[in-house]
Specification:
This protein is an alpha/beta fold. The chain is about 40% helix and about 15% strand. It is globular. Bound molecules: xanthosine-5'-monophosphate.
Amino acid sequence: MNQEITCQELNSEKFIEDQIRAISETVGDGLAINALSGGVDSSVVTALGHRALGDRLKTIFVQNGLMREGEPKQVQSMFSDLDIPVEIVDSREDFFSALQGLEDPEEKREAVTQTFYKKVFGQIVNESHAKYLLQGTILTDVDETVAGIKRQHNVFEQLGIDPQEAFGYKIIEPLIQLRKDGVRKVGEALGLPEPMFNRIPFPGPALAARVIGEVTPERIEIVRKATTIVEQALSFTNAFQYMAILHEDRVTGMRNNQREFGLQIEVRCWDSVDARQASPTHVSFDVLEKLGSDITDQVPGVVSVTYNIAKKPPSTMEVV
Ligand code: XMP
């Protein structure tokens, strides 16, 4: 069991010191790889790992084809400003072929997990002779996976899976005792730029967690365009997280006086402290109406936009 450190009891300076020492001791004089997605957790782990290992940490951004608009280059450039080099590995084909034909949410999550850890990182770790993968798993990821609610992409040992046996390397998880609010506090204490540690969360399976039904490059492109619009429109709310979701069902719409059997986008905007419980943000109807117009105008094929009004639980924040 991982003992929780709540945000209130967290002493960031001591936590950072302890984790740097633990990472250094574990890796010794070897090499480690670290998976950076640009989200809060992986950004904090990258900074911690870099302090502990310097050049002996190789930071990889996996371009899985499921990220937000312009994200790989943006993340690389933000870290370059911190003198942390980030290598982008293009694995788009691996992910889309693993996801092809899958509709079941847990099968989709499993496909993303296997592609990340077995295929992509298996190869990178093998080629680099690193023995460790450093990653930003947090306690909330573990809770939901162990409870059987969602198989979070980055949880293994708590499910009885030994990463060494399954993938050929060990995994180090310095943030495993924290929740999101604690991770942000550590990010601030590490001196990361505010937009990095206060960024809204983004799930490991990325936009694949926001497409109901089959994940294809075309369907990802639709949800990606809608995501850009939603993130711009709702950043002023300071909500915990906001997102666009592509539904599987089509509905009858009309454009230019012609029938259009079109797509549906659902907008979700959540108030939450640590993602365990969440409720829909009270966004004004004017803002929602503008979102409806912008999405139907700018995202090809979309004729319907809805706003989620259910709480977590029984909902969850992502749809997959
Ligand atoms: P749910 O959808 O489970 O999301 O209510 C709770 C929080 O976790 C994020 N999330 C993930 N994060 N790997 C992650 O690192 C995952 O597989 C994953 N799935 C969901 C989600 O974005 C939300 O902040």
